[in-house]
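Posting for a labmate who doesn't have an account.
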Amino acid sequence: MKNHKILIVEDELIAAEYLKEVLEKYGANVLEIVDNGQDAIKKCLELKPDLVFMDIMLRDNISGCEAAVTISQKSDAKIIFLSAYTEPEMIDYAVEAKAIGYLTKPYNEAQIIANLRLAFKDSAPVKSPTKETIELINGYSFDTQKKRLFQNGIEVDLGPKALKFISLLCTQPGISVSNEQICTHIWGQMVDDRTLRSLIFRVRSSTDDELIKNVSGLGYKICIA
């Protein structure tokens, strides 16, 4: 990770410093923090970062969305959007800017590192230890070795497809996984929406409605503690 240069564009200082702290903890080289779209474009052209964490809603006359589109046209930097919103318009901007990730606020360490790993999946791995147990909300946890879901230490009775679904979501906890990825992983091909919704219903019937969340326009995510 030390060879990868990262620029943070975030106008909330506390959020920016937290993001910087987490990234540097895992060996990232954070070049700078800027708080507006104009400086984001300027610094990308000057510093040539490999990755930009871009807040969508900035306070100057150039939004993060506009800055990201310009950066994608003028540099090779990868872009991960930061936002408290998942409206279709925001997703459209992410697609136009060729963003590789979309972090919803308030984000946490696991979400940040999952996106970091995805950004540099073809290069040297992020230097983080492999977790055997992923702590989820409401007392749930997932054993990545045994591929089993537990609540307060008691195993939840799930079928093989449901466990494959949970296991896939836990590869990037707190981050949405697309319907296409889910279908390909479980059935080996795209299936109709009713089949996927039926699986989600069975999982929620055995757990609760808060564990698996639908992210509008993106897919599904598993919620972490």
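Reply:
Got it, the structure tokens are right above this. The chain has two domains: 5-119, 133-222.
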